[in-house]
């Protein structure tokens, strides 16, 4: 039995249902499209903030790092689980902690790193930050194990190389550390932080020209990079350059107070202290040192400069200051070797020897690899140490011990070979061993005048005077003055030395030669 209108009802139901389904599908489709578009927009925003943050971090200044932080915070509001952004945030906080010594940055670095690791980030920032964190915490065995595991997996990046360099430096394997710092700086040549780290490592070793060159490469990457600029100025001052040459840089950096983190404040104050010291104002230098240590108490350059200022005042506290600097950075040769030299110069031979003994204790178990792959004790290759020790022994009147140290410096055959030849030759001259002295001195003071050590020519001149060869001796003394002037010795000092030689000639019965000597040497010490 048919129900009237039933077919119409079916038709109406089918049409309405279809329309409803179409409507639902349209709504879902519109929602899906809107979600997809929104998701795409969010992804674009996230990517844009991440690119901006990376670019800011690459510049390396505190203001740039602050900008990077702001972009990352905005990014995390959109995508809190962005693993690569978390890794970059960890790298950024690690820089603020290890380089700029910002309070609380270490805790933030650990927090961001743990988030990045829990999210499975495999970026270079994540692994580099973990390795640097372990080194910064002094967990050298764990750091070494991690780096070895990553190397075995084929991981390789400038950040990992930088962590390796810092680890090697901490272990006292300085030659290998230099090479690693250089590789990291070359691999990340657009990032001034890496060249700056390399420059600081060179500065710690007292390799001033090389350090300035490394800081110059950092400035090429970012001409406005504050840490490289002020530390380059400090390296130049340590090398004996006139403070006038770096005054403009220091003033410009000092004027940017808002950009100066504790590290930059301390480094800036140390450079100002060295500038004051170069002008003969040790008390002013000590005032700047106090400001540096207030900004960052562990600044080893501030403690070192304090020792230099106290040594200039011939204050007995100089030894304590140098020892405090070494305690902060025991594997930095500059602090010990220069500190020992200055202590010896002010008459504290006991303090100088104690510092050298501590240096030997620090490095006595360190091995270094030769060009043919063999491992030898690092001290056997450390000619600068043996030269310093020989000088202290010689000043103390322990000539046999001094000769033994100079022989070790010679056997190292390092970059200081010529200086070692001169040192031993001068000591043999003092012992009247003219033949032994002459063979060593002529090797570094050739007759052509092409040698680079003024003192070697002066010693050879004295040797020839002692043998009655006054004309030849005057020639060597002339070469000595020429070289000294070329290396920046003030003309008043040259004049004093020339007059001393004139008096030597007169007392030796050579008045005519004394007169001729001043005629020839006079132009060397005339004011330009």
TrEMBL record:
<dbReference type="InterPro" id="IPR011990">
    <property type="entry name" value="TPR-like_helical_dom_sf"/>
</dbReference>
<keyword id="KW-0812">Transmembrane</keyword>
<protein>
    <submittedName>
        <fullName>Cellulose synthase</fullName>
    </submittedName>
</protein>
<dbReference type="Pfam" id="PF14559">
    <property type="entry name" value="TPR_19"/>
</dbReference>
<keyword id="KW-0802">TPR repeat</keyword>
<keyword id="KW-1133">Transmembrane helix</keyword>
<feature type="repeat" description="TPR">
    <location>
        <begin position="192"/>
        <end position="225"/>
    </location>
</feature>
<feature type="transmembrane region" description="Helical">
    <location>
        <begin position="15"/>
        <end position="37"/>
    </location>
</feature>
<dbReference type="Pfam" id="PF13432">
    <property type="entry name" value="TPR_16"/>
</dbReference>
<dbReference type="InterPro" id="IPR019734">
    <property type="entry name" value="TPR_rpt"/>
</dbReference>
<keyword id="KW-0472">Membrane</keyword>
């Amino acid at each position: 039995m048919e129900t009237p209108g039933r077919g119409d009802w079916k038709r109406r139901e089918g049409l309405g249902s279809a329309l409803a389904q179409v409507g639902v599908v349209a709504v879902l489709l519109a929602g899906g499209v809107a979600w997809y578009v929104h998701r795409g927009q969010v992804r674009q925003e996230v990517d844009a903030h991440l690119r901006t943050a990376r670019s800011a971090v690459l510049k390396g200044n505190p203001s740039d790092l602050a900008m990077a932080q702001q972009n990352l915070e905005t990014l995390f509001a959109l995508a809190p689980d962005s693993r690569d952004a978390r890794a970059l945030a960890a790298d950024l906080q690690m820089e603020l902690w290890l380089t700029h010594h910002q309070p609380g940055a270490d805790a933030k670095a650990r927090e961001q790193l743990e988030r990045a690791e829990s999210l499975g980030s495999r970026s270079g920032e994540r692994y580099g930050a973990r390795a640097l964190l372990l080194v910064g915490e002094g967990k050298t065995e764990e750091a070494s194990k991690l780096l070895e595991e990553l190397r075995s997996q084929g991981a390789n990046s400038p950040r990992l190389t930088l962590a390796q360099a810092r680890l090697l430096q901490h272990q006292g394997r300085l030659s290998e550390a230099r090479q690693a710092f250089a590789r990291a700086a070359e691999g990340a040549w657009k990032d001034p932080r890496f060249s700056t780290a390399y420059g600081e490592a060179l500065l710690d070793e007292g390799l001033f020209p090389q350090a300035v060159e490394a800081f110059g490469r950092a400035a090429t990457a970012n001409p406005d990079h504050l840490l490289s600029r002020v530390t380059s100025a400090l390296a130049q001052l340590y090398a004996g350059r006139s403070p006038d040459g770096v005054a403009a840089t220091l003033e410009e950096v000092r004027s940017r107070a808002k950009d100066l983190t504790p590290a930059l404040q301390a480094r800036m104050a140390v450079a100002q202290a060295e500038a004051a010291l170069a002008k003969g104002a040790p008390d002013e230098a000590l005032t700047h040192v106090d400001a540096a240590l207030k900004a960052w108490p562990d600044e080893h350059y501030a403690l070192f400069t304090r020792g230099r200022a106290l040594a200039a005042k011939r204050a007995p506290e100089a030894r304590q200051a140098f020892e405090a600097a070494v305690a902060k950075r025991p594997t930095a040769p500059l602090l010990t070797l220069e500190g020992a030299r200055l202590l010896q110069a002010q008459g504290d031979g006991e303090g100088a020897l104690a510092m050298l003994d501590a240096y030997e204790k620090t490095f006595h178990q360190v091995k270094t690899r030769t060009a043919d792959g063999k491992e030898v004790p690092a001290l056997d290759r450390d000619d600068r140490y043996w030269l310093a020790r020989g000088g202290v022994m010689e000043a103390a009147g322990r000539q046999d011990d001094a000769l033994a140290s100079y022989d070790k410096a010679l056997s190292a055959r390092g970059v200081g070979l010529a200086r070692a030849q001169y040192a031993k030759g001068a000591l043999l001259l003092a012992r009247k061993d003219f033949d032994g002295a002459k063979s060593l001195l002529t090797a570094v003071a050739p007759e052509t005048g092409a040698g680079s050590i003024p003192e070697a020519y002066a010693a050879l001149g004295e040797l020839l005077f002692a043998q009655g060869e006054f004309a030849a001796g005057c020639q060597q003394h002339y070469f000595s003055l020429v070289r000294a002037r070329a290396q920046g010795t003030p003309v008043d000092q040259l004049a004093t030395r020339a007059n001393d030689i004139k008096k030597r000639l007169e007392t030796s019965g050579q008045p005519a030669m004394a007169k001729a000597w001043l005629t020839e040497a006079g132009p060397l010490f005339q004011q330009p």
